[in-house]
Amino acid sequence: MKKFNFRKVLDGLTASSPGGSAGGGGAGGGSAHPGGTAGAAGTPREEIQETLTSDYFQICKTVRHGFPYLPTALAFDPVQKILAIGTRTGAIRILGRPGVDCYCQHESGAAVLQLQFLINEGALVSACADDTLHLWNLRQKRPAILHSLKFNRERITYCHLPFQSKWLYVGTERGNTHIVNIESFILSGYVIMWNKAIELSTKTHPGPVVHLSDSPRDEGKLLIGYENGTVVFWDLRSKRADLRAYYDEAIHSVAWHHEGKQFMCSHSDGSLTLWNLKSPNRPFQTTIPHGKIQRDGKKPESCKPILKVEYKTCKNSEPFVIFSGGLSYDKACRRPSLTIMHGKAITVLEMDHPIVDFLTLCETPYPNEFQEPYAVVVLLEKDLIVVDLTQSNFPIFENPYPIDIHESPVTCTEYFADCPPDLIPVLYSVGAKHKKQGYSNKEWPISGGAWNLGAQTYPEIIITGHADGSVKFWDASAITLQMLYKLKTSKVFEKQKPGEGKATAEIVEEDPFAVQMMYWCPESRIFCVAGVSAYVVVYRFSKHEVNTEIASLEVRLQYEVEDIITPEPEIIPQFPDASSQLPSLKSLSGSTNTVACEGMMKDSIPCLSVKTRPVRMPPGYQADLVIQLVWVDGEPPQQITSLAVNSAYGLVAFGNCNGLAVVDFMQKTVLLSMGTLELYGSSDPYQRQPRSPRKSKQFAADNFCMRGLSNFYPDLTKRIRTSYQNHVNGHCTSPTSQSCSSGKRLSSADVSKANRRGPGRPPFRKAQSAACMEISLPVTTEGSTRRSVTKSVNYIRKEPVSGIRDRDSSLNAKLSSNELGYISRRAMLQQLHGISSFSHDERHYTAHTWMNKENRENSFSRSRSSSVSSIDRDSKEAITALYFMESFARKNDSAVSPCLWVGTGLGMVLILSLNLPASDDLRQSEPVMVSPSGTVLTLKGAVLTFACLDCTGTLIHPPYEVWRDPHSADDGEKTRKRKLVMHSPSSSQDMGDHQFAVICSEKQAKVFSLPSQTCLYVHNITETSFLLQADVVTLCNSVCLACFCANGHIMTLSLPSLRPLLDINYLPVTDMRIARTFCFSNEGQALYLSSPTEIQRLTYSQEMCDNLQDMLGDLFTPVETPEAQNRGFLKGLFGGSGQAFDREELFGEATAGKASRSLAQHIPGSGGIEGVRGAAGGVIGDLTRARIALDERGQKLGELDERTASMMASAEAFSKHAHEVMLKYKDKKWYQF
């Protein structure tokens, strides 16, 4: 039944003619003139009414998954049971029960030094490295800043907020202690100056404040720890020091005993000192827990500093002393450790990564009660673990958060929204069998907040490919993320023995199994992986374990053309050879160990060895076929740049800069393997010369295709055409309309004459790993280039940590944005690929080594290895996009037939005809024929994506085979027969006699009518930039083209008319990680890797933005604060201060006066009601505000009821006692008393 649309009735009279403008380039493309108009062939036979308008689109971030990148601070609310983590980039992640995960960001981007919860108040204080305090309101789903306080003259070093207090103590680098009112965020006039805290006879400055805490016994006493080893016990009422303690080692942290009579300090020599307030002259106990005891009775030898110590008491057992650091210096290879001392038992827990901070979780929030610790939260540089203290072996809790995304660096991503609903339970069932054992049997202790499923019901799956060859499937439904299944693709290959890789054909120094591209068919469950070592693995899904051999094929792909003369030549001066501007550079694309040294030329050798023995394959994805590209005449195989699979046809196609290969994975045969030029036949629009004989083979090893880091990034390889920027008038010449570089060097004089710079061959560093680079390559003169490159190099020592390489370098690799300028797209790609420095992803030896290797001649002339250079090089045309579909291959076709659409880096589109056996019975025996159809279509820029619409404008899905278990127990004829779905959602009757082919390149989009091949619509998306990602997606039962541009714009275009619907400047591409991992999905969903450890999801759907507030978790839930324990009569009489401590009276303006205005500046925030209004509009916002007000009112009424009841009880007791006294003395005379 055909769909009937009211919009068609209402808007039919005003429908725009297809001959009209298809929309301008928009701000995203920076187009100076309107976008394309319809082709000259006229209008389609039937005007398609499009239902999508700009009202359907809106961009907003939804949720961020993964481990907080570069963590610095940790805080926990023991009543609300939520955890906060601050980072070096100014971000805060707040975690509660699974599903409650909130991301906040300080606008300044300053590192978070410390976090403090207002316990059970729904608020959080953050102290940042720019000496600013912020108060966050957590009573809304999107936290916002209520107040900020910027210190102008002093640097913040430590903060402390006592439980149920509204006065925050702030210690500074000068040694002073200031006091801030949390409610108003105004500085009190009460200041504890360092020179008043220490003794007058002391001649040296005590150093910064490293600790502040009030006494558990008396809130009117403040303990101040200074860095040099001085501890001052300050009486806030009398404004003088009660006692001072001195130690000759620097203090790192201080912890109280709950009775308030003792405190413990940790020091820089690995010692712990225990002090008694009654005898502060010296510590009554000093221990170096990990120090070796000397034989002659001397003091144990010093150890590494103990960075933090916590001293927690138990009612029924010995106290816990927990600390980080303090290990002996003689154990250089010891991993970072957390030590737990409980009585005489000492347990050392070794960590995989350096410890950033830790917190002990206790049963009570009151500091003057037995603490009863039950867990320790340990924040590591790249992990978060929680240790169970209630069991003697201290097991860890199983972490429910998806914080292991970065277990191996992510190299590529795929996102599938609205996928078949049975996939998630099936993947979980096979993945659950690999769960680790030995976790604590108790529930995850961070259980705060509230979360519900919301209105979104369709299943979503995210797939991540990693540098170690692993692939992870994640359940991403309802803005959560949970690991389903992990596949290790490296298991199909033999393990490389140490030192063997260099002697054989291995062409990647590290991570030879890195996943480069993935293709998944959810309906047939066929999964295909392309690896960085030039191989493709086809996987089938089975619920049964099998023991079988792995089939493998080898493919030769060679390109035999040298020169291209484009149809519209335009002479453009080349990008100057770097040898004229930089010091002598080593050829970054290869190794100094040339193949010629090995004494033989490699030929027909794959990069890796497939296992030949039978392999046990557990349930899940099982390798069906491995296809490897081989060395050809001493040249290594070029990286794979495109990949497509079709389960109905039983074919897998992949291409690189040499050509295209098509393999039948059912019959395990190679159907096609030819260079790109041979695909054209007589239809080649370019005039190409035969390839000249190779002068020498001795530099073959320097042509290694995988030596550049770009080889790990499948997205990049599709988008490598260079845009040539004219810096005089801003005009950008299409990469397909100018002559390509011949690799000749230009002198500096030649360069100075021309402002327009053409392509040059960039040098590329060896592919040491699979993570991306973030580099600044400023456009400067010859003299300044050397300085800039040298300055931006990060000299970082390589330190492997516990089996997982530390892949994060300093944040200082970036140069400021005002130093940047891109000569061309090639210059940007050079910059992003790391000519001069490393990004956050990696910590490797630095690039300065290439400055003094090789000669200048070789630095550019032989850098043809990487994907950037190999696609941009003059003689090669890469296959950048592949798509199987039922289509019209030729103009005179009357019916659709199986086709393979091929897109190239020069904007060419070729259609290959697939001749399949007529019946399914013959599929296993009869050969499949693949032949070029002769059809060639052209676009501007490298082709990115294809799609096909039927005559009603509905997306035609490629045919697929319904999944069946290849190793099913019942092998009857019915189960063995393939079930194919050829057209979905439209039936063959609705197909009509024509189709719309949607093709998008990095510069423009075109819609062709088939079979006439008439260009109906064309839209020039961008002139000055280029697209990184484009996909045809479904939204609100319609279809559109979604694009992500390198200048940060996200755009959507209607189909088939290519009208611009959305164009928002969302995210500038600051590094290749974003370009490599950005992907669109259906229903308005998208994601990218925002940091090496985090996935950021976003939506471009207005409906999703409207419903987002309901889907997010609540951070604050009304919880009653536990009552304090009764101290008893004697403890109340002798245990502490008799009078209550009134901070308001002491620190308020009436007593303490006003603080100096120049000391700190108050900045009002956008939180509170305004923040709620911004986070949620309309009725939702009103309800949220009303609920917050009701919560507050309810709490106040509850407190009032309690006070009223207490007063009534007191009054009744007083009345009763008064009556008894009156009765007792009523009849007595005065002299009888």
UniProtKB/TrEMBL annotation:
Residues 1168-1228 form the V-SNARE coiled-coil homology domain. One of its GO terms (biological process) is protein transport. The gene is STXBP5L. It is a peripheral membrane protein. PANTHER family: LETHAL 2 GIANT LARVAE PROTEIN (PTHR10241), SYNTAXIN-BINDING PROTEIN 5-LIKE (PTHR10241:SF19). PROSITE patterns: V_SNARE, WD_REPEATS_2. The keyword Repeat applies. Keywords: Cell membrane, Coiled coil, Cytoplasm, Exocytosis, Membrane, Phosphoprotein, Protein transport, Repeat, Transport, WD repeat. This is Syntaxin-binding protein 5-like. It comes from Meleagris gallopavo. Residues 20-39 have a biased composition (Gly residues).
